[in-house]
Write a structure and sequence with these properties.
The complex is a heterodimer of chains A (281) and B (166). Chain A has 281 residues and is an alpha+beta fold. Chain A folds into three domains: 52 residues, no CATH class; 43 residues; 163 residues, Beta Barrel (Thrombin, subunit H), CATH 2.40.10. Chain A has three helices and twelve strands, in the order H-H-H-E-E-E-E-E-E-E-E-E-E-E-E. The longest helix of chain A has 39 residues. The chains are: A alpha+beta (281), B mainly alpha (166).
């Protein structure tokens, strides 16, 4: 006989029951996060927790790179220096020209009483971590809300557009790459001025969508941001057309492009922050 | 089962290995290394579920799954669900797995690890959008090899190993 107040069959739940409970919790998490994006607080918490760890774990490879760089041959450095000096001279000339042009541009704008383009600030950021997600290609940067970043800002490197900030944590942020599936970028073809929509197609490639079959476009054309979305400034190089093909079944051309920026290899990137627009009356 | 001796499966050792796995996952992996990286955390969790099921179970696996989700910028719950499924499979096969030598054990673990990755893929597919590639599955052989190495080292270290307390 069982004593009063004593359970006769005291035992833990079986594994199947426990699995079902955790599966329910898991599905709830997925729904809350994917549909309502309500778990960003938890993400920030994890980010704060892991940020120092990531910095520390990055140190060994950084030291190795430093050491490797130290032993670069002297001759190579000299050659590089000469090349850089020549390039600098060329650039100086260009800087002068562009300064001149900028001044002229301001004057002309004032003349036309146009609204000046909002001033831009850049934030330097380094790639901290590459996400291992197969649904969207993302990288993590070492700058976050503390540096004034917010989601939606464009990220560029020296060669072109890298992507767009997707999530911001206190001291880091996630970037969705331009080549990530379903990431759309409004662009125009540099040679003809034809506007279009470039979409990432995964695996480091992009495609230009909805180009009518008679469009003048060929391999080698550069695509620049058109700026009509008011997110990306106009004129940032995005991609180069690698192949144009025409299909019998579709009224559109199939235009494949390769991103210009080192989308999966850039270490140092810039985030462009457009200052809030000042309305000059 | 509750007579677990303090030495081989002590809390300190369990937490130490789990922390080490998380740290390894935090290294800046890129390129092929990223694709071929074994899932350290999953292997560590399943190892302790196999050897210390009273201490490490669904809750730990679920939490570390959430951490893995954060890590990959995936939807929260994707890895958590998959890890819970992995724990269930290991608990289900536990007595069987404990009988084998490291190589056979790793071979038996292969379908379990594969099931976990397929669960990640499936949940992501349903919750977010179609996957961009199946490179996700490349971690399965790597994780299996890692399991083999771990099991081998444990066996060499402890003689017949932790398995005696099955």
């Amino acid at each position: 006989m069982a004593m009063p107040g004593q359970l006769m069959f005291a035992r833990r739940l079986g594994p199947t029951a426990r699995l079902l409970i955790w599966l329910l919790i898991g599905v709830a998490c997925v729904v809350i996060d994917a549909r309502y994006r309500a778990l960003d607080g938890l993400r920030s918490g994890f980010s704060l927790l892991l940020q120092p760890v990531r910095q520390v774990m990055r140190a060994p490879s950084d030291v190795a790179t430093e050491l490797g760089g130290f032993f670069t041959r002297h001759r190579l450095l000299q050659k590089e220096r000469d090349a850089l000096l020549a390039e600098r001279a060329g650039l100086l000339v260009k800087v002068n020209t562009s300064r001149d042009l900028a001044r002229e541009n301001t004057e002309l704008r004032m003349l036309l009483q146009l609204q000046a383009r909002p001033g831009q600030r850049v934030v330097h950021a380094a790639q901290l971590y590459q996400g291992h997600d197969w649904f969207a290609q993302r990288i993590t940067l070492d700058q976050g809300a503390g540096a004034g970043l917010r989601s939606g800002l464009p990220v560029v490197d020296a060669a072109g557009l890298v992507g767009q900030i997707n999530r911001v944590y206190p001291a880091s942020s996630e970037v969705t790459l331009v080549s990530s599936p379903e990431q759309l970028t409004p662009v125009y073809v540099e040679r003809t001025g034809q506007r279009g929509l470039a979409a990432g197609s995964g695996r480091g490639q992009m495609e230009l969508r909805y180009m009518p079959a008679q469009t003048d476009i060929r391999a080698g054309d550069r695509l620049l941001t058109s700026g009509i979305d008011r997110i990306y400034p106009a004129g940032i190089p995005v991609a180069r057309v690698s192949r144009v093909s025409r299909s019998q079944s579709s009224p559109y051309l199939r235009v494949e492009c390769l991103p210009l920026a080192g989308v999966d290899r850039a270490r140092a990137v810039l985030v462009l922050i457009a200052e809030p627009q000042v309305r000059a009356r | 089962m509750n007579v677990a001796a303090e030495n081989p499966g002590s809390w300190r050792r369990i937490l130490g290995t789990l922390a080490l796995a998380v740290l390894l996952e935090q290294l800046p992996w890129t390129g092929w290394a990223l694709v071929l990286r074994p899932d350290f955390v999953l292997v560590a969790v399943l190892f302790w579920v196999l050897h210390q099921p009273a201490r490490i179970g669904f809750a730990t696996a679920f939490f570390l799954g959430l951490l893995a989700d954060f890590q990959d910028g995936a939807a929260f719950g994707q890895h958590a669900i998959a890890y819970a499924i992995g724990v269930y499979l290991v608990l289900f096969l536990r007595l069987r797995l404990l009988q084998f030598d490291p190589l056979r054990q790793a071979a038996q673990l292969f379908p379990v690890l594969l099931a976990v990755q397929l669960a990640v893929l499936l949940v992501g597919w349903l919750a977010v959008n179609p996957p961009a590639g199946l490179s996700i599955l490349m971690t399965v052989p790597a994780s299996t090899v890692l399991w083999y190495l771990v099991a081998l080292i444990v066996r060499l270290w402890h003689g017949k190993g932790l398995q005696d307390r099955a």
